[in-house]
């Protein structure tokens, strides 16, 4: 296996996220960028934790309440417990998960840490979310995801890095196209309704990382042609919450929808 090609001198969104969640898989460039971003957006670490909790609630709901057993998680980021496979394989150890990310350090850690229950499977693809045909035709997807059965596609905290709406729609449409009715799409992305979120997105852009905040109406349009599940597009802390987080600290909105 070739060594990962790590450019440690340039900040990367996955490693900034890891640092702000209290992880250790980051470098000085990431820590400097994180400090500058938090200066303009002090609630960002709280928001990131709220987003992680949202992912876990969504995954549990889809596995426990809707019976989904196949998950395609794109923009995985560095492994931070709870990971999606840990949540859904508690519901059914036979669940199958394919993770996708394009950061070499994520690849290294995913291979080591994203291990499946023996009854199911957990695979990892090194790919960019823009590379939809490459993702869907990869052996990891074709060997582990049954296209005749519903699949959950997760785009958690990643679409803010796709600032062009047409491209975002192309990605979503392409990912959903091969899969049957009953498949689901889960999204979280930076909200335009929180001043700190707007400031954080600007701080990312200032450091060469594309980032876009979206209104609730723009996020809702990402689900075009799908049936939104209650409560629709909301701040992530308000999606079927099991803990309380003040809205003012939450910089992400999202929702879950079903293909009919």
Fourth-level CATH superfamily = Vaccinia Virus protein VP39
Q: Please outline the major beta sheet.
A: 8 strands, mixed
CATH fold assignment: Rossmann fold
Q: What is the average of the pLDDT values?
A: 90
Please give the count of helices: 10
Helical proportion?
A: 25-40%
What would you note in describing this structure?
The chain has helices at residues 13-20, 28-40, 44-64, 84-91, 104-113, 132-137, 139-144, 165-176, 195-206, 216-221, and strands spanning 70-74, 96-101, 121-126, 152-156, 184-190, 227-228, 234-235, 252-258. It is an alpha/beta fold. Strands 1, 2, 3, 4, 5, 6, 7 and 8 form an eight-stranded mixed β-sheet that branches. Helix 3 packs parallel to helix 4. Residues 1-5 have low confidence and may be disordered.
Report a brief summary of the structure.
This is Methyltransferase. The chain is an alpha/beta fold and 260 residues long. The chain is built from ten helices and eight strands.
List keywords for this structure.
260 residues, Methyltransferase, eight-stranded mixed β-sheet, disordered N terminus, SAM-dependent_MTases_sf, Rossmann fold, SAM_dep_MeTrfase_SAV2177_type
Task: Show the helix and strand layout.
Elements: H1 13-20, H2 28-40, H3 44-64, E1 70-74, H4 84-91, E2 96-101, H5 104-113, E3 121-126, H6 132-137, H7 139-144, E4 152-156, H8 165-176, E5 184-190, H9 195-206, H10 216-221, E6 227-228, E7 234-235, E8 252-258
Parallel strand pairs: 1-2, 1-4, 2-3, 4-5
Antiparallel strand pairs: 5-8, 6-8, 7-8
């Amino acid at each position: 296996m070739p060594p990962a090609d790590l450019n440690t001198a340039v900040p990367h969104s996955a490693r900034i996220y890891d640092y702000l969640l209290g992880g250790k898989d980051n470098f000085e460039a990431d820590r400097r960028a994180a400090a500058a971003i938090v200066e303009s957006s002090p609630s960002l670490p709280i928001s990131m934790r709220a987003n992680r909790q949202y992912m876990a609630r969504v995954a549990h709901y889809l596995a426990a309440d809707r019976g989904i057993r196949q998950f395609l998680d794109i923009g995985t980021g560095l492994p931070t417990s709870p990971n999606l496979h840990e949540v859904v394989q508690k519901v059914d150890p036979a669940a199958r998960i394919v993770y996708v990310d394009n950061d070499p350090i994520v690849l290294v850690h995913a291979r080591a840490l994203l291990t499946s229950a023996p009854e199911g499977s957990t695979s990892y693809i090194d790919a960019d979310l823009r590379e939809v045909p490459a993702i869907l035709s990869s052996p990891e997807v074709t060997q582990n995801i049954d296209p005749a059965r519903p699949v959950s596609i997760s785009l958690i905290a990643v679409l803010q890095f796709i600032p062009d709406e047409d491209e975002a729609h192309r990605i979503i449409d392409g990912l959903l196209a091969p899969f049957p009715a009953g498949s689901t799409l889960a999204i979280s992305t930076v909200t335009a309704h929180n001043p700190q979120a707007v400031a954080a997105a600007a701080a990312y852009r200032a450091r060469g990382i594309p980032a876009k905040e979206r209104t609730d109406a723009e996020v809702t349009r990402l689900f075009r042609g799908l049936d939104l599940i209650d409560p629709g597009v909301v701040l992530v802390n308000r999606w079927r919450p099991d803990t309380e987080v003040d809205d003012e600290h939450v910089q992400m909105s999202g929702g879950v929808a079903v293909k009919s």
